[in-house]
Protein 1
Amino acid sequence: MLLTPLDGITLQTKIAANAHAMKRWLGKAEVVLGNHSDRLNAINIFPVADGDTGTNLYLTVRAAVSALDESPVAVTESGNDVGAVLSKAGQAAMEQARGNSGTLFAVFLCAAAEPLAGKTRLGAPLLATALNRAQIRAWSALSEPVAGTMLSVLEAAAHAAQRVDAEQDGDDSNHALGLSLDAVVEAAYQAVLRTEDELAQLQEAHVVDAGGVGMLLVLDCLRSAVLGMTMTMTMNRRWRPVTAGVSMSTFRTPLPPWN
């Protein structure tokens, strides 16, 4: 099922994919993860039910944002270098990473920054390359990587970006970037929904993977920051990621309402 709010978004003119947009992305992710950390903690079942995935991811993203806030030179003196901004944020995130979710976010950021070094704008081809680099590095970052987690969500997003890039023949236009970001968020969303069936612990608890939802929110923040649009995703009172236009019948197993 396609996400209805994404229809036709590439016709708008607010697309900004420079270094300032990357900083805006991370700032937005900090706010969104802060607002959702308690809900992510509540569905933190795998690998252990220690209820800290949301907090760990939020604190790691906050460290990345703080590094950019403390040193705006990352944007002003780098000639609007997208890779330099993400690299600085990634290094700070890596130094202060909390838990598996925080570590994987830091790896994601550092790896994505590499092909963007020296680039002043993020286009669809670079997005595909960056996400693919990030998902490969993330899978290798853990001693025992497991499908049905944020790794699967990042992998699905990367494959979606590669597919759009191939379909658009490497088009570097804003239009192609909009199509790619649409596809990335849609693929991540569908991957999150699949996590419940991929891990027995999640299926037994009737929840989706907390880290996967966190990665989905991060990617949706990227789309929002670059395209100048509102967020598509939120989490409802049944601990599910929800997108406008998708009925609750999409989620097979109802959960207890938020108390």
Protein 2
Amino acid sequence: MKKLYLMIVLLAGLGLVMGGCTSSTDPAHTNTADLEDFGNYEATDETSPDFNNPDLADLLAETEEEEYDDPVALSPVVDSVENQTRPDIFHFRMLWGNLPRDTAVTDLTDWSGTLTISRGAIVVTHLIRFEPGQDYLLPRWNDEGYYVPEELRWVSKTSCCLDGIATKLFIPPSVTDEVVTVSFKAGRFGITFTMDQLEDLDTLINLSYGNAVLLQAARFEPRPNLHTRGHLRGVWTKDDTGQGIFYGRWTSAGGVPMGAIKGEWGVDSTGNNIFVGKWIDRSGRFQGFVKGTWEEHGVCLGMHCPQWAGLFEGRIFNSEREPIGLLGGRYWKMPCSRTGRFEGRWCVGGCLDTGGRDD
């Protein structure tokens, strides 16, 4: 697989604390799981879209992403790009805040900032966990009353949780060799990417006090029947017996709910770190098995409970146990809390042959 993850750790003036990074709740101490083949999962439809799991039902019921009707979508720039034979359109997703969702954090962090593109238009598709009255977009027009499609501004504050914005970037063709750049700034943090880096962007920046920024991008694929991709996110934890489990939502690249995922993680009979699970659509119909590996990476930042974190990556399989796609991402957890979180991406179709890219 082409390099799927890029992790940048910024100390932000703090020393990296190595002591106290392990505990009895670390994943290295998990029970041996029934992870041979695909565990106890079968290629059958479920009787409910949440695997009859009350916790997953509650998670799916949360309004995590709110659709946003951006008037910039009607701008001439957007229209001109959409009419191209192979338009340069990218999904660009931004998350910031306390990704493990540590409820011990009560102080507010100001993430107010901007997203700018050197040429083109930014169209907001979803607001992620924005709280009315506290988090909002700023007006996008200038003093003459005209929209400024190349700039997006927001006000956002978080404590124990996270906020974010999902967008589409429309980049018109150019007759010059101009390098198009996209610049993100939130609070005191900022970073710039070129258009080439947006093809398969998945960048995590760890900041202070458990805060982080996660930036993801992928080319918009106008042929969904050939290549399909999106996001998965949810809970990464252990049950009462100490067995590692995960469950969450399965969405399109544009944030549209498509179903749910549920599985187990642990150590198989040969000592390998393995996860297995099952993906279903919004009606409970079987869509695929998932299986792969996970790897722990301790992260100790700030004054709160040190957190452990890690990466997972694997494949998606059809009912015949044949690989049809890829998935991968990250998980976070605080040792003083049993519940952690994961964020990842998936693709099915031609991406299996191109390492996750749409060529």
Protein 3
Amino acid sequence: MSKLRLNKTQSSFSVDSTINRANQVRRDTDSIKTPSCTIYDVDYAIISYIRDTIKPTVTEDGNVIDIPIMYANGEKWSQIQKHGYMRDQKGKLMAPLMILKRNSITERDTLKKLDVEKNPSGNAQTFRNRFTQANRYDRFGVLNNAKPTQEFYITSVPEFVDVTYELLIWTPYIEDMNKVVEAIMPTGGFAWGTTWKFNTYIDDYSFETVNNVGEDRIVRATLPLRTKATLLMEDELRKSTLQKRYAVKQIKFGSEYQTDEFPAKIIETGKTYSQIESETDLISKITKQAQDRS
């Protein structure tokens, strides 16, 4: 008894779709890189813009000092929550300093996409590759009037999200804090980033002065950042988000046939092809005249 073929492995209510071999195109030979924009790219865009474009500085003893900026990992943020500031390995208070902390990621209500398990046709972006190795100019293609092969790349629609951050700034004096805030304030609403760029908005500023008994004085400012980001992963549901396709071509097949009557007569009689053809025409004419008389 043959083994039963399961045709409802993905859903109990519908039959599995058949595999289209035309969509299974290899991509290990092309040079097109799969586009991706991850959460790391968004974080790096914010930090690199502050470090390389804004370049906040403070003046201490006549020397201009660049303020270092770091990302708030688990250990650093635990120390900030416990003390409200950070100390180095020797116990010295770290100021001036900037820390970036990501709070949340929410999908934009105005730019929602159709999130379904099976991506329907049309819910993707299509791009055409203008030059391919198959369309190289050669004289053979010109003589045969060969049409160029159109190569397309289909990518998924990206996720449009809002990413919120907290930018924490520590300086020894209020005067230094004012200069840092004045350098960052005009960039609100700009596209932050060096490679990837995202519109970033600054919400309400908050300030706090820590001056406890027996501790160093420090000024802290908190800047809430709201970034309009776009996320596109390289893989979705274990499938690449960039698929390769070719344009449809029309193929025509013509019929060809060969008769073995004349070659056999040539071999038997030793006559040429034209002689046998004339004799055959004469016989057909005589046969037709006989039929007309009857």
Protein 4
Amino acid sequence: MSRTAPVFKYLFLFFIFVFNTTFAQKAIPELWGQRVHDEAKILQPSTIDKLEKELKTFEDSTSNQIAVLIISSLEGEVMEEYSLKVAEKWRLGTKLKDNGALFVVAIDDHEMRIEVGQGLQGKLTDALCSRIIRNEVTPAFRRNAYDEGVNTAIDLIIKSTRGEYTAEAGDEDNTGWIIFAIIFGLICIGLLVYSFINEGKSSSAETTKSSSRNTNPTSSDTSTTSMFSNSSIGKSGSSFSGGGGSFDGGGSSGKW
């Protein structure tokens, strides 16, 4: 009995672990042929009807599928993971185009996310999703104007897919270029300092030998040219484009 007791104990703990990881996750609602799911009951019926008609018309004309899910709480789940699971279960967008999008709102957690299918990421970029959330929807949600905020989000998502809503220059991330400019500036300063030091050494040594004086600057110029060449190779070899790939989990999240 004493030997078998620990075995049953570990088996019991194992089954508890499996149960928690399998069944304790927040349930994903069925699609049930609806594009707008207000699980938190915060939208007016007229708003839901308006959005349903608007999204159906948009789908009929473009084949793009957009859906809305509003929940009370994430119940401990991570917004990005939960949103992706919903989009994958609902299979938004066509199989050939992957042209679906999902707007998820968690009221009690004050979190929201725009999940974008691969086929729409070229127009509905992460930067645009971030701008929609940050600049357009968040102010409305902070006033508890949820109907206004959801309407605005869907309107701008549709406009973005048509190219009618674009990111401002200030919305683009220039961090990479700033870092490159700083590094390039430091390289230039280092080259100048190196050139001055090398020239000083050559002028102080054997001033009577003109050939020696002429050789050092040439070496300096060659070294300088080589370093500039290496700098150019490093620049061209680095990737500064960004955002051109096809990947799952595209979109942006935000809080209010």
